[in-house]
Amino acid sequence: MAAPETEDQNCTDHSFKSKTLTENDAGKKSPNKNHKDKNNKQNKDNVTRVVVVALTPDRRRETWNKKVEFLLAVVGFAVDLGNVWRFPYICYQNGGGAFLIPYTIMLIFGGLPLFYMELALGQFHRSGCLTIWKRICPALKGVGYAICLIDIYMGMYYNTIIGWALYYLIASFQSELPWTKCTNDWNTIFCRPVTELLPNVTASSPAREFFEREVLEQYKSDGLNRMGPIKPALALCVFAVFILVYFSLWKGVRSTGKAVWITALAPYVVLIILLGRGVSLPGASEGIRYYLTPDWDKLYSSKVWIDAASQIFFSLGPGFGTLLALSSYNKFNNNCYRDAILTSTINCLTSFLAGFVIFSVLGYMAHVQHKSVEEVGLEGPGLVFIVYPEAIATMSGSVFWSIIFFLMLITLGLDSTFGGLEAMITALCDEYPKVLGRHRETFVAFLLFGIYICALPTTTYGGVYLVNMLNIYGPGLAILFVVFVEAAGVCWIYGTDNFARDIEKMIGHRPGLFWRICWKYISPVFILIIFVFSLLSHEQMLGTEYAYPEWSLQVGYVLTASSIMCIPIYIVYKFAITPGNLLQRWKMIWQAEHSSDNSALTYCGGTEV
């Protein structure tokens, strides 16, 4: 029987030497004892194989060149477009300054413990969201497959939004911004400059018509029932985004570590510049007042607390597998506790800073149009693709402000898409090291090309409706349930005490009582409550501007179920392939295959299922 196939050159050397030693020893036996010699040789071969498995070193894993590259990558993933277009609006809508109270509470008791948990898990087990489960709870490996599927759905629409920003950036390189006047081919008779818009009058601004009729051309579609053909210019912009993503991911942490110096730091430079410009505009103080004025009565509303919990969860981003993947490239004794506190604090402060940038400009627009701030503001893509460009068009030096603003949006988006895709790439390369891990560059190219093909429907004339639907039903609902199962698997099945002991091995001290209580009781319940309330209000999340047909909602349910069902399907599969009687199988699939106490025994090559 041949020696087991190995993972690297060290494994091959060990196997060769041990096997040769056995054969030489067997050659010294008396020829008159052939039968016994043959049996002895087989026995020695078996012993040799056991020794090879036990003593072979694990395949060397890459690490970050510098600690700061890891921190930038985590901050870049957590700080995304939602920090700019969602947090300021949610804050204003839910009581202004008063909203910071439930937001901070949800951060401390819900978001931060989950954030810390994922960083510690990835760093200790040094593996992605698939391989890690055999060391925690083999039956829940379906969580990893669910995360990979969710990351694919996210890649299908999130890169399209970055493509819109790239379209705006290219259009900004003109002597005059194309959404300044109503004299373009795409404008309608209802177009009016922003300074001439009157309340209760049917009219639209040049910026709105540029977005809807030039960038998206959504008037050429009939919604999701007839989306129309692909728009070549948008498809090219999205393709360019995928090219940027590829060359940032193809070499693993070596290429990502270099890219994050630009994509993570550039948004802060631009935010500070835009803040300086925004607060100098007339009406800015009124906008900031709207942003911060506390409405204490809102704290009695359960919706405010649910919005705070949802915002902090989606802002920090646990559950997407990204934190696991990024921290798995850390050195074993890295202080992940300090990293979790630092990066989550930076993320929340960035959201708060973005609120000043946005609301100073909204106050200015309200001043120009003689409206109140609430009549000007929009949530989501409309804020950054309509309202803010409108404001920029009225400023002196509008071309410069437009270029840096959309550069900021692109870099914010790229960091997050790096993280989501790296989570899936790391997971699959760890799970299939011989097939995929050794050919990472080729694998990443095929993967990104496949996701790009799947994303092409979002570049059609009706693609904006598909983007919104994918956002809600792709990761939006499913990720909440997946994170609940992940937290339950780690804290309830693997055990909070075991997890705390693992952390102690890395950083030298045991997590305090507060963290252990949060992991065991508060955080799983925190996620479950968000999931239930989101499930009850998912149709409201689609908005009211477009009535989604009934069939599209059913497709949305299928999208959500497709990732969630990975979990029970894998439990059934694992139960079926595990040897033993029914009770033995059931107990075995919930027990870690490699305990942290025996982490010195490593296995070379092969994929476990």
TrEMBL record:
Cell compartment(s), UniProt: Membrane
GO biological process, one term: amino acid transport
Composition-biased stretches (Acidic residues): 1-10
Residues passing through the membrane, by range: 68-87, 99-121, 142-170, 230-249, 261-284, 304-326, 346-366, 386-414, 443-466, 472-496, 517-536, 556-577
This protein's record includes keyword Zinc: no
Pfam families cross-referenced by the UniProt entry: SNF
Domain of life from the UniProt record: Eukaryota
The name this protein goes by in its record: Transporter
Basic and acidic residues biased stretches: 14-28
